[in-house]
Amino acid sequence: MAGVSSRTTHRVAVLKGGPSAEREVSLSSGHECARALRVAGFDVIEVDAGPDLADRLSEIKPDCVFNALHGRWGEDGCVQGLLEWLRIPYTHSGVLASALAMDKTRAKTAFQAAGLPVVKSLLAPRAEVMARHVMPAPYVVKPNSEGSSVGVYIVLDGANSPPQLADTMPDVVMVESYVRGRELTCTVLGDHALCVTEIQTTGWYDYDAKYSPGGSRHVLPAALPGEVSAACLDYALRAHRALGCRGMSRTDFRWDEARGLDGLFLLETNTQPGMTPTSLSPEQAAHRGTSFPELCRGRGEDPSRAPRPPP
Fold it and tell me: Looking at 146, 268, 294, 301, which residue is catalytic?
């Protein structure tokens, strides 16, 4: 389910914050989702997820949890497992799909098995990546299990030396061929791909470009050849299904238009997309006629399953 979609749900605990590198983004998502759910008529309690989360939820006794966490612990199957143990219904994908999507290498294996076009990549020790070029430039170095372009390094053609990675990077990192071209993304809601957005920036679509004011421009719908737009919609839905996602996911692409359809590559699928009214997935839902409060309550996924707010 994309949002709170049980007709009997009145009290909703919105999980936000948490200990990941994406804490600040999650706080913003959680605040906006909580406000939207209150507009929809629910009793909402906002919870900054910490080590005492199980105790907090046991005290609150919510009918449902809206998971607005991003990154490790909240998006990788960990909090999903806790909620399964506590037998509390929750939004977005389950344990297995969340864990698969967060592990970029295993997600690519699932995508390849589904016949989806992915970029060549490998896992390598951090020390080795800093000592030599482990693949021909241009290439990208990033954590295997983080989101929001956290810790991304781009090594361009002609680089004299390999990248010197920050101490915060994990001991083993992903090295991936760099695809020149346009940044595209597509949201799946329920069992339907919504539309394609092009993300325009003056440089790489990194963490700052995603979340700083004016860091990027969203073109919705993207001005694309029909076959490329159709392929994005198809690939996003197939990726959603290949991982076993539920509710909402967002799949990111790079497209080298000089190569036509052969230049379209799937990068990764995000099971917990940003959830502010101006985030990519809510923008796409709004473009398709679903308001932000309706999206949070699950209306955009299947109107027949939308909850009735308490009287």
Answer: 268
Say if residue 280's pLDDT is above 50: yes
**192-216: per-residue pLDDT in tens?**
999 999 999 865 544 454 545 556 7
Q: What is the DSSP string of the chain?
A: --S---TT--EEEEEE--SSTTHHHHHHHHHHHHHHHHHTT-EEEEEE--TTHHHHHHHH--SEEEE---STTTSSSHHHHHHHHHT--BSS--HHHHHHHHSHHHHHHHHHHTT--B--EEEEEHHHHHHS-SSPSSEEEEETT--TTTT-EEE-TT-SS-----TTS-SEEEEEE---SEEEEEEEETTEEEEEEEEE-SS---HHHHHSTTS-EEESS----HHHHHHHHHHHHHHHHHHT--SEEEEEEEE-GGGGGGGEEEEEEESS---STTSHHHHHHHHTT--HHHHHHTTTT-GGGPPPPP-
Given 23, 238, 250, 254, which residue is catalytic?
Answer: 250
pTM: 0.88
Instruction: Mark whether 59 is an active-site residue.
Output: no
Whether 148 is a known active-site residue: answer yes
Q: How much is the pLDDT for 2?
A: 55
